[in-house]
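Practice problem: DUF3278 domain-containing protein
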Amino acid sequence: MKETISTKIIKWFYGIHGPLDEYRRNELNRIGNNIAILLLTVNLLLSFIASLLMLSTNNSELTLDIVVSVLLLTVFVSLGYILYETKRHHLTEIDVDAKQEGKIKQKFIKRAIGLGIYFAIAMYGLTILIDWLPNKGALIPLLTEPSTISSAIVSGLIYGLLMGTWEIHQIKSDPNDKKVTQNHLHQKYWLILFIIIVITSLLLIHK
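Answer key — structure tokens:
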């Protein structure tokens, strides 16, 4: 039976490989429902608190800071919850031939290098954007700032190393049945989490 577009999107979002069986579908529905309830509750409370702050203090900057901080925290918690639940219920595990373990590790290393490069570029762009927005001055000095370039490179190296190490450690060999279990957690979740942390740190530094 051909997969629908919605099924493909669900599998891509949660990092599911192989068929989306009834067990996985039920667990993903449960995870999605829990996140939906969390987001609805947070949005209602956040709207109420933001309205009270504006009425009582008339301080739009404070209100914006609180709203952005809560939204970033909500995304952070939601993605962390997805990672925890998909790992705890083995939703992203796949079995491959043990002979392919070496190739899988090489694939992870190449992917980690690519992720490190992407992360370095993202951090470089975000740092420049955050530095430029307050005054909107010349961009050339910001683009060639040694500290910005070096911090982006270091961030990319650290992120790539962490992702490569994490993915390789998710491979579990079983010599008895000659199978390898790969816990394939989507790197995009970690990428988003790291970006949130860096954005928050940069905003705090520029306060």
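Discussion: The first strand starts at residue 93 and ends at 97. Students who identified this feature from the tokens alone can consider the problem solved.
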